[in-house]
Structure formats: C-alpha cells, structure tokens
Amino acid sequence: METIALKAKAANIRMDLLRMIHNAKTGHTGGSLSNTDILTALYYRIMKLDPQNPKWDKRDRFIASKGHSVESLWCILADLGFFPKEELQTFSQFGSRLIGHPNNKVNGIEMNTGALGHGLAISVGMALASKRDNSGYRVFCLMGDGEQAEGSVWEAAMAGAHFKLDNLVGIIDRNRLQISGSTEDVMGLDPLEDKWEAFGWHVVSINGNDMDELVQTLEAAPAAENKPTLIMANTVKGKGVSFAENSAKWHHHVPSDEQLELAINELTALLETYQLEGKV
Question: Which pLDDT tens digit goes with each residue over 43-102?
C-alpha cells in the first residue's frame, strides 16, 4: 500500500476505534490513537501476513506488549479480515472475545498480553526460535514508554543483544504520557535512546506519527547485523483528535456523543485532504 493510502487508512482506523470505544463506554483512547500510524504501517505494508491462513509458519510475528492499547489493533485485524468487522460492536461486552487486551482466541493474536513488561521477553523467545529453526520470520514488539520502568524489559533487552537477534524489532510508542501523568515525572526515562544503545541494540529515533518516516525506517528494519533494532517512535498521545492530543486524561477516557462527532469531523476533513490528492 502506498504511503498516501496508509495515511488515509490510519484516519479510517482512528474513526473505527473511536466509535468502538464510544459504543463500549470503555477503552484506552489516547494510546490507541498514538500507536495507530505504527500499526497501520506494520500491518498494511511491512509484515508478512495471511488473514486467510493466520497460522502460516512463515508469518512475521507481532506482540503488543502495551496490550491495554488494543483498540487500534482490533480495528486493523477486523479490517484485514482476521475476524468479521461486525464483531467490533461487541468490544468489552460480556462474553465477547474482543476484550480490553489482546486475546489469542482471536485469529491474528500471537499471545495474550497486558501485564506490562512481558511482551519483549516473549518476543525474544520467538525471535530466538526463528533463528534456531531457520524459519526466517521477523518479530515486532510494540512497547509503551511507561512500561520502560519494568525491570523485565531490561532483562529481555540484555538477552536480545546477547543472542544477536537481528530478526527482532522493538518499537517504543514514546508519547511521554502514562495514566498518572508525564513519564518523566512518574519515573524519569531519558536519555532513553542511550540506555538501549548501552544494552547492545541498534537504535533509530523517528517521528512515530509521520507515515513516510515510519515506512522508510520499518522497511530497513532490522537495520544492523547481529543486533536487535529498537525504534524510538516519538508520538503524540491522542494523535488525530485535537482536544485529546497531549492530554494524560485521555489515557483511559471515553468520548461523549458531542466529542465523538467532533473527532469524526476532524478525521473526515483529514481524510478528504488525502482524497483530494487523487491517490486514495
């Protein structure tokens, strides 16, 4: 998919996840909006996948370590045909498979996640298995910046470098906000890039809401021989919805009827700018 089409797709995914959260009256809105561009680039351009054969041996693996921001992932998997799109209407309802964290009873989900700090360790194991089996698949792991305070992240980082897992790509959704405020106030992380480099990873810092930059970086990843790659994706929490951007309260906040209408109008206007270019 061309970059302009990816931008349009991301706008549509944002509208879908907002409607889904509004309907369910629960959800992690801010982080799902910030990671939408990352997931759109991965699922529609970068990763080897087959929705009709979700257990294909050669598929690339994706682990959402920041599992609470699952809404964008559910919308993308439904759009790609891993499960019926109508099922999004059941999100977070009694008996639904589409709960508030990834659930591997759903096609397209590799592992249940949500306990922060565990996803990278799972990804290291998958990448090591791929190496030892000569399977050839890559592993992508999306982490939140707040979860960088978890010690298990750094144990996994050390292992990834030790085993020279150059088929492993870690991505940090660096929106600098978590549920209780600024990451730097809760538990200071900077200089975060230097820490990952010190642990033996190849580090690339980008604008994680710039689709052109995302595609260019992800197409080159993993980007170093015998080293795992860490992409520091600097993003805006609540991206795409003006009144939610850079606001900690939107970590777990549900739009009202009026806010949903305003957000949809903003995203529709953005989508129309892409359509005017005549490429979507």
Answer: 999 999 999 999 999 999 999 999 999 999 999 999 999 999 999 999 999 999 999 999
Domains and CATH numbers, the chain: 3-276 (3.40.50.970)
**Hey, how many other C-beta atoms are within 10 angstroms of the C-beta on 21?**
23
Residues in the chain predicted with pLDDT less than 50, given as ranges, are none
